[in-house]
Amino acid sequence: MKIFNTKEIYEADKFTLERQQISAEDLMEKAAVQIFNWMHTRLNGDQTQIYIFCGVGNNGGDGLVLARHLVQHGYRVTVCVVNFNEHRSKEFLINLDRLKEAKVWPKFLGESSIIPQLEKEAIIVDAIFGIGLKRAVAPWVLEVFREINKSNAFVLSIDIPSGLFMDHKVPNNDEAVKSSYLLSFQVPKLIFFLPDTGLFLDQWELLDIGLDTDFLMHAPSDYELIGKAEVLPFYRPRTKYTHKGTYGHVLIIGGSYGKIGAVLMAAKGSLYAGSGLVTAFVPKCGLVPLQSAFPELMVLTDINETEITNIDFNFTPTVIGIGVGMGTGTNAVKAFSLFLKNNKTPLVIDADGLNILAKNPDLFSDLPPQTVLTPHPKELERMLGKWKNDFDKLIKTKEFSKKHDCIVVIKGAHTITVYGDKGYVNSTGNPGMATGGSGDVLTGVITGLLAQGYATLEAAVFGVYLHGRAADIAIRECGFQALVATDIIAHLGKAYLDLFVDQVNSLQDEQA
Ligand SMILES: NC(=O)C1=CN([C@@H]2O[C@H](COP(=O)(O)OP(=O)(O)OC[C@H]3O[C@@H](n4cnc5c(N)ncnc54)[C@H](O)[C@@H]3O)[C@@H](O)[C@H]2O)[C@@H](O)CC1
Ligand SMILES: [K+]
């Protein structure tokens, strides 16, 4: 599903009004009625006090329309207009009149107004700012945000939590409304998925307000949210007259004394993702543990006992995953640099491979085209330098990806895979995955997909999805805390099977 920025949303809006021959107030009515229906279905006439905080733009207009419908259905509603601007939008003014016609008189809050006491049993609707917030918010309006946050009431935000900017960070963590539930219009926004801004929202849901489907389908977007519908077309079924050679041969290079487990997890990840064969290249100390723990794996060893010194193998792999547990000592750096100079095989680079690249940036020119790099935030920072905020991080990653023709998988709560100007935001995964080894497994899964012939970008995006989905399925049995990286491997099969489970069956399965 496409993630639109502010400009693209306003364009979709304009296109829809022209195509459907409707006015902006008609679209606002449609949008706000969706919110009313959502609330009415759940509240069913309940007399809980509802405070609706409206701004004076169209987000505020949505709040006024909602207020009118709630009042007309007998709900207890107090409307507060946060009067932050002399200029009020046309649709806001039309709906203010309509509200007055319905005999509702909003309280107008200004710089010196006293904000009503907000009881924690109340429901607060946050319709102060939407996607139109452009400049710093006045201090007294920030105070309104703080009062809402302090109330501990249930906060239902409309479109986005008020105070969040669509393209930069909030200056301080108390300068935007914290939503308990967010109802957003038609398309997800990038701010839902970034650590700096995502912390202002908990759950979110999209409401279809009837924006033009042709526009939504054809308009280009810089980011895409990756769910089952997006990865399903990538899936390559296994056919009958095939053999292990059909599904490629992965080579995992890495490991050092005490860090052989990283290679084990990457290698297992590859095989469970479906590669035909997997070989590991490790220091000698890795031979016995790998062969004992994982009989399906073939092992080649370095001449050195405890670290990699000379990467030398006697076959042509389909793809190589390199870096996990490898260390960054002089020998590893020398071996890795020489390997890169002579290598022509597609690569996935993780962990110490990335750390060595960061310290020796001239090596980037030796990477084959479309090399996949899978940094966690610290590794990314070592490669890119410091960034100002999440938006800046993405801009810098895109520049980096274009400069070195590489695919960068920025690991995090919502892993974002960046290639050139485009970012793919993953929707699967959970906090249980913040555990040692889960990154090694991801390296394995992506190499495993590449071995089977998936296009590089597809392998990265699909691999991230499957990895997260496997963890989502695993936590049903073990919860967040007890999830370990090998549980992710063990549930990769179920993540594949889940691709073909429709939503209804999947829900029933979860309830069982
Ligand atoms: N296509 C859609 O998604 C639709 C969106 N609608 C609503 O319209 C909203 C966008 O409305 P607007 O563009 O009017 O913007 P907002 O209502 O988000 O912002 C308020 C207005 O205040 C001004 N402003 C910006 N920063 C300010 C600041 N720091 N201090 C004071 N004033 C400031 C802006 O000029 C803006 O017009 C959406 O978030 C959504 O709620 C719906 O009404 C209908 C359809
Ligand atoms: K809002």
Automatic annotation (TrEMBL):
Transmembrane segments: none annotated. Residues 9-217 form the YjeF N-terminal domain. It holds the Pfam family Carb_kinase. Binds 1 potassium ion per subunit. K(+) binds at N59, D126, S162. (6S)-NADPHX binds at residues 58-62, 130-136, 159, 262, 323, 376, 440. Residues 227-499 form the YjeF C-terminal domain. Keywords: ATP-binding, Isomerase, Lyase, Metal-binding, Multifunctional enzyme, NAD, NADP, Nucleotide-binding, Potassium. Its cofactor is K(+); Mg(2+). Its EC number is 4.2.1.136, 5.1.99.6. Gene3D superfamilies: 3.40.1190.20, YjeF N-terminal domain. Coiled coil: none annotated. SUPFAM superfamilies: Ribokinase-like, YjeF N-terminal domain-like. AMP binds at K411, G412, A413, H414, T415, G439. It catalyses: (6R)-NADHX = (6S)-NADHX; (6R)-NADPHX = (6S)-NADPHX; (6S)-NADHX + ADP = AMP + phosphate + NADH + H(+); (6S)-NADPHX + ADP = AMP + phosphate + NADPH + H(+). Homotetramer. In the C-terminal section; belongs to the NnrD/CARKD family. Catalyzes the epimerization of the S- and R-forms of NAD(P)HX, a damaged form of NAD(P)H that is a result of enzymatic or heat-dependent hydration. This is a prerequisite for the S-specific NAD(P)H-hydrate dehydratase to allow the repair of both epimers of NAD(P)HX. Catalyzes the dehydration of the S-form of NAD(P)HX at the expense of ADP, which is converted to AMP. Together with NAD(P)HX epimerase, which catalyzes the epimerization of the S- and R-forms, the enzyme allows the repair of both epimers of NAD(P)HX, a damaged form of NAD(P)H that is a result of enzymatic or heat-dependent hydration. This is Bifunctional NAD(P)H-hydrate repair enzyme.
